[in-house]
Amino acid sequence: MKLGSSLVSFFSASFLLFSVASARSQRVRYYYNAMLYVFSLGVCSTIGVLYPLIFGIFGQRYNTNYVVARSFYMIAGTLIGYDVSLKGAEHLQTRPGIILGNHQSFLDILYLGCVMPRRSVIMAKKELKILPILGQFMMLSGALFIDRKSRTSAIKTMSEGGARMRREKLALFAFPEGTRSHSILPELLPFKKGVFHLAIETQLPIIPVVCENYSRIYDSKTRFEGGDLRLVALPPISTEGMTDKDTDKLIKTVYDAMLKQLLELDQDNDSKDAAFAAQPPSRDPPRVRGLAGLFARIVGDGRNHQHNRTIRRVARDEDALRANAHGGTQSSDYGLVSSAHSTNGVSAS
């Protein structure tokens, strides 16, 4: 009993210190938010196992993905601080249909909470089936597991899945890129053909969903911040009357539509950045969100300290350049202004 109490006290104190540090350091916040994300995944995967076991007898098995996706969005979105907006939600009500989304990183799981409809299944690679808890949740929810090493097996799985979708009036979600792009640019990887063969075989419409490039708030090595994400669901693309000969044409149609929307979202971000630079607000909005943001409001986020430290470093660099007989009298003459301005935000220590 005493040992248990000591362990609780130790972990509580450690979490508190971790939380305080995350408020003042982007580097610490990266690991802090990653921990919260994995915690949310564990909780929601457990929900995904229990829900179909309990409610499956009432015919609710195919609502599992909807419940889990919404739960994950609410839990992880709140803890880390995400606000996702969706345009074109009416297109997601097409039944049965195939929903395709662009795949940037594992953060994409978050936006599924806004696009995953009721009575839906997902298409995933067979390797995910063996993962503890997550694999069991996916199996119980009716996922289509594709063996990418066996064309025969993949075709059989998709054929059976297509028949089930029509019979049960299900929606299916898949990432047509097949893997994460991890791109800092608004771009798409080449699409895999499997899901398009399924769409043509079943003659079901495709509903493309595009998530804006979010490298400004997340990359896999240095940055994991909360922020705003925008999604756009495009009008359904019909596959009626198509045959396997039309597969490449269908892929190009969907690819071009999604890439165009992705670029438009990026251009809109560029316009907002330009407007901000031309007329910045008198007071910076809070930069840190979620649980880390809560602690930032209590202990501060360290931005002023970091900014002042960089200003002093810029001054030292100017003196060093002048001492070496370089010309110029302003910070901009030395290419140092951007260094100072860049720290008028979250500490990167």
Description:
The two termini are 40 Å apart. The chain has helices spanning 2-24, 26-55, 64-81, 108-115, 134-140, 151-168, 194-202, 247-278, 290-299, 303-323, 337-341; strands at residues 82-87, 97-101, 120-125, 144-146, 171-174, 206-211, 218-219, 223-224, 227-233. It is an alpha/beta fold and 349 residues long. The chain has 2 domains: 7-278, Glycerol-3-phosphate (1)-acyltransferase, CATH 3.40.1130; 315-349, no CATH class. Strand 7 (218-219) and strand 8 (223-224) form a beta hairpin. It has a 7-stranded mixed sheet, sandwiched between helices. A two-stranded antiparallel sheet has the order 7-8. Residues 329-349 have low confidence and may be disordered. It is globular and about 70 Å long.
Enumerate the spans where pLDDT stays under 50 for 5 or more consecutive residues.
329-349
What can be said about the biggest beta sheet?
Answer: 7 strands, mixed
What characteristic shape results from the CA principal axes? globular
- The CATH class designation of the largest domain is Alpha Beta
User: How does the helix and strand content classify structurally?
Assistant: alpha/beta
Helix content: 40-55%
CATH architecture of the largest domain: 3-Layer(aba) Sandwich
CATH topology of the largest domain: Glycerol-3-phosphate (1)-acyltransferase
Please count the helical segments.
Answer: 11
Question: Total number of β-strand segments?
Answer: 9
Number of domains: 2
Mean pLDDT: 84
Report, as a whole number of angstroms, the end-to-end distance: 40 Å
Rg is 24 Å
SSE string, helices as H and strands as E: HHHEEHEHEHEHEEEEHHHH
| Strand portion | 5-15%
List the strand order in the largest sheet: 1-9-6-2-5-3-4
Domain Phospholipid/glycerol acyltransferase: 97-214
Biased composition (Polar residues): 327-349
Organism: Malassezia psittaci
Region (Disordered): 324-349
